[in-house]
Each structure stands twice: as C-alpha cells, then as structure tokens.
Amino acid sequence: MLFSFSLERPDDIKSTFLKLKEELESHNGKLSGNDVSGSISSNGVEGTYVVEEDSIKIKIHKKPLLFPNSLIENEIRRIFRKVSV
To answer: What fold characterizes domain 3-83?
Structure first.
C-alpha cells in the first residue's frame, strides 16, 4: 500500500456506488465490487475500498510516479462529492 485515507459514508451508499461506477467508466476507469468492498482504477491509479459503518476506507496500491498523493486523494474526494446522494 502506498497510502490510505477515509471518506464520510454517504446516506444512500448503493445509489452512490452505482453513480460512481458510471462516472469512472465514462472516464475509462473501473469500479469492481459492491457497496461493501471492492477495487477502483483509473489513469494508472489502482486501489481498494471497504465501506464501514460511517466511513469509506480507501487504500491506494499503485500510482504513476509523478502523481502526488494529494492530487489523487483530492480527485477521489471530488468525484465522491459529485456522485453522493
């Protein structure tokens, strides 16, 4: 694992993950899994997630050398805000 962070769990986790999957796929990314756990990948970034009672734990396992951790975390947070319901 390169780094990890947590997001606040949205109220409607199932709808959020359906929208997240659509959003990632529209940008050549991929979400494999469900509203409990799975993996995400996009633009050379690969990670896993686990949904807990009040948060989503994200672990990034692979990333391009020139992508700072903060850029990846901020982009994931932005996408989750966009699709959260």
So the answer is: TATA-Binding Protein (3.30.310)
